[in-house]
Design a protein that fits this description.
The chain has 136 residues and is α+β, with helices and mostly antiparallel strands. α3 crosses α4. Helices cover 41% and strands 21% of the residues. It has a single domain, classed as Alpha-Beta Plaits, CATH 3.30.70.141. Strands 2-3-1-4 form a four-stranded antiparallel beta sheet, with helices on both faces. The protein is globular, with a radius of gyration of 14 Å. The chain has seven helices and four strands, in the order βααβααβααβα. The structure holds cytidine-5'-diphosphate (CDP) and magnesium ion. Cytidine-5'-diphosphate binds next to loops.
Length: 136
């Protein structure tokens, strides 16, 4: 059954700052993800607040939004079968110290806040998040 999906991935400031974006993109490609769209940008804090609105009541919300807007990021539309869940699996657990071997966060993540990548957590959110960065 063809279950082609698109999901939004972000290479976060800690990874872009360490020039890991090319290396991380290669991992996605090797795992069968097609990078359909990508852009390197820096967003304003107010945009980060919109993007992470689902977390607005969390204690880490302010720091999270300050962080996402603190430097350049690479936003990508990734496409493959089961892209949403497969990307979550490839990213690994939110806290790099809980992430399993072979995941991006295990390999590159520094801490729970500087965990190198974002990935949509559902097909519904993927559509919203892709629109957020790539609506033209
Ligand atoms: O990114 P993911 O979907 O795995 O986790 P989330 O629960 O949706 O949280 C969004 C982001 O907030 C995480 O990727 C972390 O960078 C950050 N976060 C944090 O700084 N402290 C926490 N206790 C939980 C999340
Ligand atoms: Mg999330």
């Amino acid at each position: 059954m063809n279950n082609l999906e698109q999901t939004l991935s972000i290479i976060k400031p800690d990874a872009v700052e360490r020039n890991l974006d090319t290396e991380i993109k290669e991992i996605f490609k090797k795992k069968g993800f097609l990078i359909k769209k990508e852009k390197k940008i820096q967003i304003e804090k107010i945009e980060a607040e919109k993007f992470y609105k689902v977390h607005e009541t969390k204690p880490f919300y302010n720091d999270l939004c300050a962080y996402l807007s603190s430097g350049p990021i690479v936003a990508m539309v990734l496409e493959k079968e089961n892209a949403v869940l497969d990307n979550r699996e490839l990213m690994g657990a939110t806290d790099p110290k809980d992430a399993v071997e072979g995941t991006i966060r295990k390999k590159y993540g520094i801490s729970i806040d500087k965990n190198s990548v974002h990935g949509s957590d559902s097909l519904e959110n993927a559509k919203i998040e892709i629109d957020f960065f790539f609506k033209d």
